[in-house]
Amino acid sequence: MNKMSKTAAALSSVIALTTLLAGCSTTPSAAPVAPKAVPQNAAAMHTSHAKIKVGLVTDTGGLNDHSFNHLAFVGLQMAEKKWGVTGSVVQSASAAAYVPNLTAYASQGYNLVIAVGYLMQDAVQKVAKQYPHTKFLIIDDQVPGSNIDSAIFETQQCGYLVGLMAGLMNTQKHVHGINGRNTVGVIGGTQIPPVESYIAGFIAGVHHVDPKAKVLLNWANSYSDPASGTELANQQISDGADIVFPVAGGTGNGVISAAAQKGVYAIGVDANQNYLAPKTVMTSALKAVDVATETVIGTVVSGHFKGGTTYFDLKNHGVGYAPVIKAVPASIVKEVNSYIPKIESGKIKIPALLTQSTH
In this predicted model, what pLDDT tens digit does every residue of 309-321 receive, in sequence order? Predict the structure, then answer.
């Protein structure tokens, strides 16, 4: 496990760069505080490292998922600007493309090959063995290998926080958009650990403050089908949900759209997705994939890359939640924030599996 620290300089650069990139065609979202400062010297800060080549392979969700593929791309852009590395991106049209896409970068002598997503586990394991001198980063899964850095996010923690917020909102019958039916909805892409941990934490948070709340859960079985997300969300809203939480990549875009059309609230995921529906995305559960991506690229630049697992959680600001909209009372935000030190200290144990949670 890599030890991480943060500095004011790292935070300032991330905030400034996020603002700068906001006008680009691929709109990045506000990132949580940088989890750690990348080891570097003064020369590294001012020298172009164009000879260092970084290849990014998305999963089938693609760059327009407004979620973790998009955030990984933003992290690559941040590294290109900060260190002058040479970046390249390929979007995977299907799962069958994972091995060929990873192999293409490794065979071309790329210094770091990034695989975005748990679903690329087997592909990374296979290609990393074939190219032991190439460095790899996999997002959202743990793959053994001295040339592989695995980024793991404790998303049950941020899921719990937005779950607390949803449960507390449902007790506010006077708030516009809350229908009094005490029901919230969750839509997952597929039942894999990085998705399940978000959802298990969310359900635990809802029930901690609202034990009688009903949580509707559906699986879209896709991360790139907004129409399916819209259909499932409309059904949940019809069944009483006044807050919906999609953990489904690009499929979740349809959920957010349906919520906006029906005048109920949505909670974004991975990135700050408020820009998709500013009046109804009340907050977002954040996973700092962009910062993790930039951080690991920085270790390659500085010569400090090390295989193993890097954990991102509330303590190092690798997960969190986005600023809330005005409809969320300040009293609720204060109460949600009061749980953060309890989670960080381990006083509150949050389930990462649905078998440990109830719904």
Answer: 999 999 989 999 9
Instruction: Find, among 282, 270, 309, the residue nearest to 28 by Cα.
Output: 270
Interior/surface letters 40-58, b for 16+ CB within 10 angstroms, e for the rest: beeebeeeebeebbbbbbb
**Quick one: which of 269, 273, 227, 217 has its CA closest to 248?**
269
- Domain annotation for the chain: domains and CATH numbers: 8-154+287-318 (3.40.50.2300), 155-286+320-356 (3.40.50.2300)
Whether the model clears a pTM of 0.90, i.e. scores above it, the answer is: no
pLDDT in tens, 174-201: 788 899 999 999 999 999 999 999 999 9
Angle between helices 8-21 and 68-83 in degrees, nearest 10 = 110
Sort 102 into a burial class: Cβ within 10 Å, 0-12 / 13-18 / 19+. buried
Place of tokens 């969700």: 61
CA-based max dimension of the chain: 60
Distance set, CA 129 to CA 89, 151, 152, 300, 307 (Å): 22, 19, 21, 19, 13
